[in-house]
Amino acid sequence: MEQVRCFIAIGLTDEIKAGLKELQSQLKSGGQTSIKWVDPYSIHLTLKFLGGVDGDKISPITAAMAEAVQGVTPFRLEVKGLGVFPSLRRVQVVWVGVGGEVDKLAHLQQRLESSLAGLGFTPENRRFTPHLTLARVRDRASSGEREGLGELITGTKFETAYRFPVEAVSLMKSQLTREGAIYSRISAAVLK
Q: Out of 19, 23, 27, 44, which one is annotated catalytic?
């Protein structure tokens, strides 16, 4: 059976994506060459990466999502702040933070983990840290390049706070291509 590479995520508004594109343009002016920038129009808030999934599991995953969102009412988040993983001296991932009603977001994410565990998906053992990935540093980057990027991040102001409603979670398909991943929605579960 053919496998589908999947994850569960919350989509962003076009306004946020345009703002992230502008922020990336500002960061790109640093001239870093060992960075893979994420297409700003495909950035999303990942709640759970599922990996390769057999096609016959799509329907049970969608049902588990619907179960997880039961009783969870829509809430608001905001995109704000710039950061890195794991540290400014050894930058591997550049991200934008997520604020707002993060307690409700964490609750929703935990409910998804619990519902999906029943289908054999191992719950994440790291604490959920909501973020939007802007870029990943390639393995070939020198320690000097990583530190330079950390300095650029420290000196970059991103003070705009974009607010958005969370009204659904989506099961997304990720198709890897040479140009990068192409995402498409498979199904959704609506918060009520």
A: 44
Angle, CA of 82, 112 and 102, to the nearest 5°: 35
Catalytic-residue membership of 107: no
Number of domains observed in the structure of the chain = 1
Q: Residue 152 sits in a domain of what CATH number? A: 3.90.1140.10
Give, to the nearest 10 degrees, the angle between helix 102-117 and helix 58-69: 140
State the first-to-last Cα distance of the chain, in angstroms, to the nearest integer: 35
Whether this prediction's pTM lies above 0.90 is answered by yes
**Among candidates 145, 8, 106, which has minimal Cα distance to 66?**
8
pLDDT in tens, the chain (192 residues): 789 999 999 999 999 999 999 999 999 987 788 999 999 999 999 999 999 999 999 999 999 999 999 999 999 999 989 999 999 999 999 999 999 999 999 999 999 999 999 999 999 988 999 999 999 999 999 999 999 899 999 999 888 889 999 999 999 999 988 877 899 999 999 999
Maximum Cα–Cα distance for the chain, whole Å?
Answer: 50
- The domain of 42 spans 3-190
Among the options 131, 145, 149, 158, which is catalytic? Answer: 131
Quote the CA–CA distance of 51 and 61 in Å, as a whole number: 13
